[in-house]
Here is the input.
Amino acid sequence: MAQFFKAKATSSKGKNLELTIESIDHQGRGVAKHQGKVCFVDGALAGECVKAQIQQEKAKLIIAKTVKVMTPSEQRTAAFCQDYQRCGGCQLQHLGHEYQLEHKHKALDALFSKFSKVTDLPWQLPIESEPTNYRRAARIACIFDTASRQLKLGFRGSKSKQIVEIQRCEVLTQPFTDIFSRLTEALNKHKAYSSISHIQLCDADNGQYVLLRHTKKIEQKYKDELENTLHGYQLLWDDGSENLVYRQLPSYQVGKLNFEFKLDNFVQVNRVVNENMLLQAFNWLDLSAQDRVLDLFCGIGNFSLLMAKQANEVIGVEGSQSSVAMAKQNAHTNQLNNVQFYCFDLTQQLAQANWFEASLNVLLLDPSRTGAYDILKQLPLTQFKKVLYVSCDPVTLARDSALLIEAGFELDKIGLMNMFPHTGHIETMALFQRR
Ligand SMILES: C[S@@+](CC[C@H](N)C(=O)[O-])C[C@H]1O[C@@H](n2cnc3c(N)ncnc32)[C@H](O)[C@@H]1O
Here is the structure.
């Protein structure tokens, strides 16, 4: 066989480029062009000239990170967190808080125009958040470093599995802002704690919970010692061998509704935004006493219970058995008997669903980032007069919206919810009405 000369591919990784940033994409990265390739640049803002280091180069694109801002945008601000450059939690602290929603608006406009050819979106006022101390739940990663014989605590680094040790986190609610240094000191007093692999924090309305996941047995005296050191926090020890026993389940309240949950259930992390989101959903849907609501991806019944106050009936569907159990319990303790919950994987065939009924006339969806395409393409959409789509991913929202528009719906209202300030996450509520 003929042998042709093929030059060795030289790696461009680590090389610096000077780039002029044209826009920011839906993940908060600067977008520029270089020799016919699209460059996505972490830490760069529209209008800026930056020096960027190449992380990865492919046939049509370059991934890079800003190493020097030569001409800063007037929207640029100093990050308030000293670990911002290393930690993977926030991506947009360099963009002034007041400009972050403007950027998210533009990103959604572009995605809707691309996927569903809808322009001039019917934007409503956004749901705002406090810029700091908004996050009531988080997961801390832990690793025992054999070289220093220390347990290290922190968040995963941006685009890596490395743990970034941090002292404080200003986006966590007040009781947890400085928990890192306190935990690091306490957990390094005894080797007994060295098998702790992660720690879950939850600032519930009825107490602050700290769940410690460990792989080896920890003697009771060491558990008691930590409990005394972290006085005021409710500690839970989880070695994965049996169901956790809660002295009292964590809970949050919205109006007169009380929601109990377990730490492995999904709960919305921004308390204030969640309350305003539920209220907005209630107002936008404007349900009548005849309406029968299908709430897909319902979790512990966050939306379902409020909707049940107004509607004739609500059917909630969720894939996590544990969340469904809590949703049923929450309906019972809130004395709502017109809401039923079912456990079902919504990527599966609708023909196997025992919860679907032709008389359901309002659809509410709140899927995870992968969106709701699988179930939406199977549902007989013509039976619904309204669809309320709560989204945590703008790309899947725009894609799924195209399907709804094609099925005869019109986008009536759309609004951002600033659930995670300073991050690239875009949370949106969209109301579709049948044309
Ligand atoms: C964004 S959360 C929303 C939960 C709830 N609506 C709330 O406001 O708290 C998405 C929910 O969808 C559930 N989920 C994810 N994939 C699913 C699937 N394939 N089938 C059913 N439920 C799923 C998750 O367990 C989670 O509870």
The first strand starts at residue 16 and ends at 20.
